[in-house]
Amino acid sequence: MNPVLGVCYYPEHWPEDLWERDAARMSEVGIRYVRIGEFAWSRLEPTPDNLQLDWMIRAVDVLGRHGLKVIIGTPTATPPRWMIDKHPDMLPVDANGHVKGFGSRRHYDFSHLGYRDEAARITRILADALGDHPALGGWQTDNEYGCHGTTYSYSDAARLGFQHWLEEKYGSVETLNKAWGNAFWSMDYNRFDQIGLPNLLVCEPNPIHALDFRRYSSDQVAAFNKVQYDILKARMPDLPVIHNFMSRYAEFDHFDLAKSIDVASWDSYPIGHLAVSDEPDEIKRLYMRQGDPDNAAFHHDLYRSVGHGRWWIMEQQPGPVNWAQFNPDPLPGMARAWAWEAFAHGAEVVSYFRWRQAPFGQEQMHSGLLRPDSEPAPGYHAAAQVSAELQKANFGGDMARGRVAVIYDYQSEWAWEIEQQARGFSHGGHVRAIYSAFRKHGVDIDVLPSTTPSFEGYDIVAIPALLAWTVALRDAVNTFEGHLLVGPRTGSKTENFSIPKGLGPDLPQNLLDAKVTRVDTIPPGLAVTVKGGGASQLWREKVETRAKVVMEDSEDVPVLIAQGKLFYMTSSGDRALVQRVVDYLIAEANLPTLNLPAGVRSRVRGDFRVYVNYGSSPATLNAAADEAGYVVGGPEMEPAGVTVARLATAD
Amino acid sequence: MNPVLGVCYYPEHWPEDLWERDAARMSEVGIRYVRIGEFAWSRLEPTPDNLQLDWMIRAVDVLGRHGLKVIIGTPTATPPRWMIDKHPDMLPVDANGHVKGFGSRRHYDFSHLGYRDEAARITRILADALGDHPALGGWQTDNEYGCHGTTYSYSDAARLGFQHWLEEKYGSVETLNKAWGNAFWSMDYNRFDQIGLPNLLVCEPNPIHALDFRRYSSDQVAAFNKVQYDILKARMPDLPVIHNFMSRYAEFDHFDLAKSIDVASWDSYPIGHLAVSDEPDEIKRLYMRQGDPDNAAFHHDLYRSVGHGRWWIMEQQPGPVNWAQFNPDPLPGMARAWAWEAFAHGAEVVSYFRWRQAPFGQEQMHSGLLRPDSEPAPGYHAAAQVSAELQKANFGGDMARGRVAVIYDYQSEWAWEIEQQARGFSHGGHVRAIYSAFRKHGVDIDVLPSTTPSFEGYDIVAIPALLAWTVALRDAVNTFEGHLLVGPRTGSKTENFSIPKGLGPDLPQNLLDAKVTRVDTIPPGLAVTVKGGGASQLWREKVETRAKVVMEDSEDVPVLIAQGKLFYMTSSGDRALVQRVVDYLIAEANLPTLNLPAGVRSRVRGDFRVYVNYGSSPATLNAAADEAGYVVGGPEMEPAGVTVARLATAD
Amino acid sequence: MNPVLGVCYYPEHWPEDLWERDAARMSEVGIRYVRIGEFAWSRLEPTPDNLQLDWMIRAVDVLGRHGLKVIIGTPTATPPRWMIDKHPDMLPVDANGHVKGFGSRRHYDFSHLGYRDEAARITRILADALGDHPALGGWQTDNEYGCHGTTYSYSDAARLGFQHWLEEKYGSVETLNKAWGNAFWSMDYNRFDQIGLPNLLVCEPNPIHALDFRRYSSDQVAAFNKVQYDILKARMPDLPVIHNFMSRYAEFDHFDLAKSIDVASWDSYPIGHLAVSDEPDEIKRLYMRQGDPDNAAFHHDLYRSVGHGRWWIMEQQPGPVNWAQFNPDPLPGMARAWAWEAFAHGAEVVSYFRWRQAPFGQEQMHSGLLRPDSEPAPGYHAAAQVSAELQKANFGGDMARGRVAVIYDYQSEWAWEIEQQARGFSHGGHVRAIYSAFRKHGVDIDVLPSTTPSFEGYDIVAIPALLAWTVALRDAVNTFEGHLLVGPRTGSKTENFSIPKGLGPDLPQNLLDAKVTRVDTIPPGLAVTVKGGGASQLWREKVETRAKVVMEDSEDVPVLIAQGKLFYMTSSGDRALVQRVVDYLIAEANLPTLNLPAGVRSRVRGDFRVYVNYGSSPATLNAAADEAGYVVGGPEMEPAGVTVARLATAD
Ligand SMILES: [Zn+2]
Ligand SMILES: [Zn+2]
Ligand SMILES: [Zn+2]
After folding, report:
1. How far is the CA of A38 from the centre of ligand 1 (A)?
2. Of C169, C171, C201, whose CA–CA distance to C185 is shortest?
3. Which chain C residue shows the shortest CA-CA distance from B377?
4. Each residue's pLDDT tens digit, A301-326
C-alpha cells in the first residue's frame, strides 16, 4: 500500500453535529486514517463501571462512512479523577518525594499493579466494543510513554517492585553486593528489602544502583504496554498495535518495548524539539522555523528500526505548538516538507496533530489543520497538497538497507547521564553528530540496536559511544568485513557499570590493540585543536596502542587510530572534527555520495529520491547520475521546498 | 489640605526615653504623619489574652504632643509565636507542599478562617483602645499583602476554600466541567471535593484551573482585609483606612481589595524595584542610583486609581535598602526627588521608611532618616528640604483627568503568566512600555481598571494586552469618541480562558473587522524588523482583516492596523516600535506634548508642573508655553534635580 | 623527622592475594604512610555486633612487614545499612525538609546522640583491636566532616539540640529575645521549645537566628569528633589523632574542632577546587591543568595553624578526578609539584589518593597512582620522583614565623553568607585576595584565627573582613607595633549580629577615628575606579573620619585611610586595587620581597626555598641574595617545574 495521510481527532471535544462535516472534509483533503480516543476515558466511563461507549461507536461509524480508517487509542494516559479515589497510591512520586496529583495527564505510576489491572480492564472493554468495527484500522496503546519525565516514579510501589526485580536478577544479596561493588563506601546490603531508590541521597548514588533502577523502570513501561498488547492481539490478531513514542524521551528502551507492538510511530514536532535540544544557538537561530534538518530524519530511521521495519508519524506538527519557551510559526511549506521527509524514510502514515485547534484546555495555543473557528489553517492546505502529490507521483516502495549503519543504545544514553564526567557529553549527541556528518553527503543510514548480531551488507558501521559490549555486538564486530568506526567511551564499562579488567575499549587485540589509560574532560571553550582541522572537546582519551595513528591533536595525542578497517576515535570532536573523521571513513570505504547544496538533505525510498530544502534561501540541485527526472518539483528548490526524483534504476 | 511628609516609626524597638526626642526632631524636619504598630503584636499581646497596650498609648501621646498625627497599623502581618501553638494549621504552604514556619513575617494563610478571626479580634482591641485618641490620623490594615509570594497557599484550608468557592461560582460540577473544557485530557470531575489545587501536577494545569485558583486567592486577600475594614469603619467612620500595597506583587486584584479601603498607599523603593525588574541591563545600569524614571510614576497613577483618587506613599526609600542582590546608594538628592515625583502625581502624604535604621533584625542594612547612632543620614536632610520647599511653594492642588488613559488589569497579569507562549511576554511589561512612551512626551496619564464603563473625556485610551472583554469595557469602547489603541492578545480569550468563537481580538466588525488567525512567538534576538523602524519581538500575530494597514514588518505582516479611530497593534514591539506607534497615535489625536530633555520627566498637579531629572548629567528645560515661572529650582537641572513650574492658567 | 609520602589504600576492595605485591610496590616508590579503613564499616561489622576485624589486622600486618606505617580511619562517615534499621531517625534532613537516605556517604546527623554512641562504640572496638599493633602510625577520625553540605541538618534531633544549646547560652528566653532583637517583626518567643530552625520560612530569618544555628551546628561537629578523640587518646596517648578537612567546607569552625586533634590534615584537589571556585573565568582557563597557584598554599598555611603547627596532606590529587563538571588531566608534573608545594609549607606527610583506581563505585573515574589494571599511572612516577628528591636533598626543617599574617575567621565566613548585601562578597574571597597579593611578592604568610591574642613578631597583619571583634583580637590590635591592614565590614557587627553602638569598624578613636555611615553595594560591572589604578566593586563604604586619606575613588570617596600604622580599606577592590593596597603596605613596612616571574610562587621551609612554576610557559628565576645554590632543579623552570634553593643562612 502506498503511504497516506492521517489526522488526530477528538470527537468528544465537539458537538456531535459537527462530526459528519469534519469527516467529509478529512476525506476531501485526502486523509485516510483518523486516530481517536486516547484521552477520552472520563467520557467513556464517567463514573466507575458506568460505561458510555455509544458515542465512540457513533463517531467511528461516521468516520467509516467517509472511507476513513480509525486508530483507537487506549485512554490509559489519562485515568479519570475517580480512579484516584479508588487507587490513591497510583499517583507518581517525583525525585524529591512529592506526589504528583490529578489535573493534567500521565498521572500514574508504572509500578502500580492495581492501575495496570485497570488499564487491562478498559483495554478489554474497548476491544470487545469496537474490535469488530469495519472502520477499525488498528490500536494505539496509551500515549507518549515517558512524556513529562514519567518513566521514573519514586513511590513505595516502585521501591518494592525494584527490590523484587533485583532479587530476580541477582538471586542473592551477596551476588548483588559483589556485582555493584558495594564494598565501596560501606554500601553493602543484608537483605533486598533494605535497598532504596537512588533519589534523595547525600551525594550521588553508586552508578550501577542508578543504572539498575533505570533498567527496572524501563522494564515496567514495557510490561505495562505488554498487558494491553496481549489483550488486543488475542482479540484481533490482524490489526496492528502501535505506540506513539516521543523522540526526546529516551528513559525507557524503545527497542525493548517494541517487542509488544507491531508498528512503531512517533510524534514529530521539529521546531519545538530543536528549541528544547542541546544544539548550539547558531543552529537554533538558523533553523528556528524549520527544525533541525537531521533530527527528525534520525528519528525516522530509529523508529523504522524500532518498528521492525514498519513505522508511522502519529502526530505531525502542523503549525506553531504551545509547549516550548517560544513557539514560532513554521516557514510556509514546512508542514508539507516534514511529511515528505517522513514518507522518504519509509513512513506508512503521516498523521497531523490535530484536526481542529482546541479553544480550551492546556493546548489551546497548539495549531491544527483547522482554526478553532473551523476555517482552514495553513496546515490544511499543506495536507491537501501532500495528498495530491503522493497520488500523482504514485509514491511508495520499500526501504532498501542503507550502506551505513549507526548503533543507538538506550542503556548507553542512561549510563552517560548517570556518569557525566564532562558536562554536556551525551550518547545521543554523539550518535546524532555522526549521523549528520554522513547525511550531509546524501548517504542513507540505518539505525541499529546494540543487540544487532551481524553487520553483513553494510559498508560502514559506527558505534559512537557504547556503554558495554553485548554478546551479539561482539559477534557482529568479529565477523564484519566493512569499515567500523568506534567512538570514545565505547566498551569502557561492563554491564555492571564497572571498568573492564583490560580497560576500554575492551576489544580483542587482533581487532584493536589499544587501552584507554586516562580520560581528560574539558569545557568546549578549551577544546584542543587537531592537526589538519577540527578540535577535541568535552571528552578526550589517552590511549596506549600499537594501532596506526591517523589523526592526532596539537599535543600529539592520537585522535583517530586504525587497525585494518577498524577505526577508533578517542575524543568527542566538534562538528568539524566529526565531519573530517566521517569524510575519511567514506573515502577509505569508497562510499558513493551526493553533492548536496547547504541546507538540502535527501533520502531514497523505493525508486524515488526525495530532497528537502531546510535552508532559508533557494537552492539548486546537482542532478545525480542515477536519476531519471523529477516527479515532484525540479532542480530549483525554494526554502521548505520538496523535490522528488525518479531513479533510473526504476526503469 | 496641602501634601505633607510622614515617617515610619517603631517605638517598641527603642528605649522609651528616646521617644520624646525622636518626636521633637520629626516635628522639626516638618514631618506630620507617623505610622506605627504594624509589626508590634508580640509586644501588644506577649502571651494569649495578656494585653499590653499602655506603651502604645504612651507612644501616641508623645507623638501627639509634638503635633504629629499617627497612623496605626494592625499587626496582623506578624502574628506572635504563641498564635502558631493555638492554630498550627494557619501556616502557609508553598507550591512544593512545604509548610512555611515562624521566624520571619507574613506567616499566615489567607484561607485560614481561625486566623481571620484572630485578626478581627486584635483589630477590635486596637480600635477600642486607640479609636478615640486625638492624635489618631487613620489606620493601616496589615502590611504589604502578598509580599514574599504569600497570596498563594497550597494548604488544606486553601483546597477546601477553593472547592467551596467553585461550588458557589459554578453551582454544579457539570457546569464547571463544561466551562473548564474538562473533556480535554479526561479532566472531568464528579464532585467538587475532588478538585485539587493546581500545584504539584505531572505537567501544566488547565489554564482556567490555574486562573480560577488565582481568582479565589485574590478574593481571600480582599475578604481578609474587609474584616478589618468593617470593624474600623464601624467604630470610627471618619478616619481613613489605608493599606500599603507593594508594586511588584500583583497576585491579587488591588482594585477589588480597594472596595474596603478609603485611601490607597504603596511602598516605593525605586532602586530595589529596578534591580529586581525585567528591564534590560542597559536601563538597570543607566538608572542604578535613581530607579527607573517611569516605574514609580506608573504606580503613582495606578494607586491613585486604586484609591478612588486618594493615595499616599506609606514607605519611601530614604537611602540604600537591604533586600536586592546589590543595594546601591541613591544619587545624592534622589530621596528628595522621589518625594516630589509622588506629590506631583497627587500623593497626600509621602512617608519615609524608616525614622532610624535598626541595628538588629532582618533589615539592619536598610537605611533610615537617622543612622543607628541617631545622627542624621542623608535622607534626614532630604526630608527637611522637601518640607521647606512644599511650604514655600504652597504646593498642592487636585489632579485633573489626564488626556491619556491606560487599562491595567490584574486578571490579564495572571493569565499571561499562566499561558506564557513567549517567555518574557507580560501584561504589565506591555502596559508599562506604552505608559513610558507617552510619558516621554510629558503627557499626563491615568491608569484605569478593566471595569471602567466609559472613556469620556480622554483623547487616547490604550488597552495593551487584555485577557477578556468585560461588559463595562465593551460599553466604554463602543461609545468612545477618542483614539483607541488596542494591543496584542487583547480579547483573545473568554473569561473562562478559552478562545472566543470569533477568535481574538473579538471586537464587533463595525469597530474592527479583524481576526487573529495565528500566533508566532519568537526570542528577542530574532525580532522581525518593521518597515520604517523598530521591530516585533516575543509576540507576533497574523491577522485576517479588512482594516487599513498602517505599519507592516519586513515580511509584510501587518503590525498596526486602523479602522476609524481604533488602532490594533498585532505584536509586542521593542521600545522603538512602541514609541513609533504611540507617536503615531499622538499625531493622529493631535495631542499636545512637551519637549523634555533625555532623562527628564514631568507631571502636572493643580497649578504646578513638577520636573525631575533622572539622568546622571545636568539638563536644561525648554520652557513650556503654559508656564509662568518657577517656584522650586529653574531651567538648569542637576542630576536628581527637581524644578517646579507654576502654570500660567493659575493666574 | 624529614617529610615523607603516604598513600590511601582500600584492602577491602581487592583480593587478599594482591596485598603483598601492593605493599612491596608502595615501599619501592618510597611511600612511608598508608591510610586505610575509613569507609570499611560494612566489612568490619557486616551485621550488628558481628565483628570481622581479622582481615584488617592481616592487612596492617602485610603493610607493616614492608616498613609502612598505617593510619586507621574510623569508619563513621559511612555507617552500614543495618544501622539505619537500628536508628531510623539518624538520617540527615535537608533545608527543604527532605530526609536524605542511605546509598552514598555521610548519611548521618551530627545532632543524633544515638549515632554518636555508635561512633564511639566502633572507635573503641578499633582502638582495642589495633591500638597495640606495631605498624600503627596514628588515627584519622571519620572523613571530611561537612562534605556534601552535611554540617547542617534540619531534623527533629537538630531542632531539640538547638533549643537546648540556646537555653544553655542565653539562660532565659527574655535574654534571648533581647539579644536577638526579637521585637523586630514580632519574633519574640515565650519558651525555648518554640524556637524552630531557620529553614522553610516565608522570607529570610533573623540573621542572629541563622548565625546561632550555624554556631550550634559547628559545635555538634566538634562534639562528635571529641568523642572519638577522647577514646583514642585515652588508649594510646602517643599516637597522633588526625582529621582530614576539606578546604571548601567552612561550615564548621576548624580551629574549634582542632581542640580535639593532634595534627591537622586536608584533602587537596587543586584542579577540582579551582573548577568549583568563584575565581574569574580567566583564572579558570589559565590554570585549568594546574589549579590556582595560591589556593592550595593558602590552605597549607591555614591548616598548619589549625593543626597547632603540625599538618599533613591526607589526600593529594594524583591525576584527573571525577566530581567536577569537567575533570581535566593535570599538566605533566603537577602531581610532583603539588607535593613539593605542600612540603614547602611544612607538611609532614603528603598522602596520594589513592593507590589504585577503583573500577567500581562512585569514584571509578578518579585516577590513582596505579591504573585499574595495576599498571603505573603518571602519578606513580611522580611519587617515585618526589621520594627520591626529598631524600637526595635531605629536605626538611621547621617553619619559621612569617613576617605577614592574615586573620581567617569561620564565623565571619558564615555571617557574610547570611547577610550578603552584595551578591558575591565573601569573607574567604577577601582573605584570599589579600593573601595572594602578598604571595606574588614571595612573602611567607601565616594564617591566624580571630582568637589570636598577640601579633608580636609580625611586620604586617591583615584583618580582611571580620564580623565582630573578639576580646583577644582587640588586645592584639591594641598592643601591635607593626602595620595593620583592616578591611571592609570588619567590626561592623557585634557577636549578636547587630550594628555596634558606635558603628563599624568599632575601633577606639586613638587607633582609628572613623565611622562607617553608609554602605553602597554595586555589581562588579559597575565598579567605581580608584584614582591611581584599580577599582572598588561589590562593597563600598562611606566613612566619617579624621584619618589621613591615602587613596580615594573617582567620586572622592576615601578607599584607604591611615592613622599611624593602622590602615583601613573601605571597599572590596578588584585584584588591581587589592594589589596596590598590599604593595603600599609592603613599602610602608619596608618588607623584603622577591622578584618572581609570572606564574611562579615560592615558600621557605627550614634552610630551603621551594619554587613552583604554575604557568604554562617556562620561566627563569632571578636568584635571590640569600640563596646558595639549588638542590632540586635550577633557575630554568619548565611548566609545573620545581626548583629548591638552599639558603645561605644554612651554612
Ligand atoms: Zn508530550
Ligand atoms: Zn519537597
Ligand atoms: Zn516586602
Report:
1. 13
2. C201
3. C517
4. 999 999 999 999 999 999 999 999 99
Q: In B393-443, at which residue ranges do the beta strands (DSSP E only) sit?
A: 404-407
Q: Which chains border B (3 or more CB–CB pairs < 8 Å)?
A: A, C
Express each pLDDT in B382-413 by its tens digit: 999 999 999 999 999 999 999 999 999 999 99
Query: How crowded is residue C194: how many other Cβ atoms within 10 Å of its Cβ?
Result: 16
Q: Is A105 annotated as a binding residue?
A: yes
The yes/no answer on whether domain B404-589 falls in CATH 3.10.20.30 is no
**Contacts with B92 from chain C: Cβ below 8 Å:** 202
pLDDT at C21: 98
Write down the CATH superfamily of domain C4-151+238-393: Glycosidases (3.20.20.80)
Secondary structure of residue A397 in the 3-state scheme: coil
Question: What distance in Å separates the CA atoms of residue B427 and residue B447, rounded to the nearest whole number?
Answer: 14
Residue A283: its chain B contacts at CB < 8 A? Answer: none
Question: Does residue A650 register a pLDDT over 60?
Answer: no
C554 touches chain B (CB under 8 A): no
Helices C575-589 and C427-439: crossing angle, nearest 10°? 50
Predicted local confidence at residue C602, as pLDDT: 98
DSSP secondary structure string, C490-557?
TT-S-TTSS--TT-TT---TTT--EEEEEEEEE-GGGPEEBTTS-EEEEEEEEEEE-SEEEEEBTT--
What is the predicted pLDDT for the residue at A651? 53
Q: Is A144 a catalytic residue?
A: yes
> Residue C606 pLDDT > 60, yes or no?
yes
pLDDT at B100: 98
Average pLDDT over residues C301-316: 98
- Is residue C460 a contact partner of residue C403, using CB atoms and an 8 Å limit? yes
Q: From the candidates C38, C251, C315, C341, give the one annotated as an active-site residue.
A: C315
Known catalytic membership, residue A12? no
Residue with cell 609570572: C598
ipTM over 0.90: yes
Residue C416 assigned as binding residue = no
Q: Say which CATH topology domain B4-155+222-393 has.
A: TIM Barrel (3.20.20)
* Cα–Cα nearest to A366, from A298, A284, A267: A267
Question: What is the structure's pLDDT at B38?
Answer: 97
Question: Would you say residue B650 has pLDDT above 70?
Answer: no
Is B143 annotated to bind a ligand? Reply is yes
Dihedral over alpha carbons A446, A448, A454, A458 (to 10 degrees):
20
The span from the CA of B38 to the CA of A321, in Å, is: 49
Dihedrals φ, ψ of C587, to 5°?
A: -65, -45
Place A604 in a pLDDT band, splitting at 50, 70 and 90.
very high
CATH for A4-151+221-393 (1.10.540.10, 3.40.50.300, 3.30.70.20, 3.20.20.80):
3.20.20.80
Cα A204 to Cα A198, A420, A493, C81, C367: the distances in Å are: 8, 12, 18, 16, 18
Closest residue by Cα to residue C95 from C147, C146, C155: C155
How far apart, in whole angstroms, are the C-alpha atoms of residue A633 and residue C376?
64
- B38, B45, B118, B144: the catalytic one is B144
Q: Do C42 and A188 touch (CB under 8 A)?
A: yes
Return d(Cα C612, Cα C606) in angstroms, integer: 17
Q: State what percent of residues in chain A have pLDDT above 70.
A: 100
- What are the structural domain ranges in chain A? 4-151+221-393, 156-208, 404-589, 600-650
Strand arrangement, sheet containing B642-647:
B600-605, B608-613, B642-647, B627-632
Contact of B419 with B207, CB cutoff 8 Å: yes
Query: What's the Cα-to-Cα distance from A542 to each of A193, A375, A488, A568, rounded to whole Å?
Result: 42, 62, 10, 12
- Second-level CATH architecture of C600-650: Sandwich (2.60)
Q: Which residues of C touch A525 (CB under 8 A)?
A: 285
Closest of A78, A80, A68 to residue A138, by C-alpha: A68
> How is residue B487 written as a grid cell?
494591543
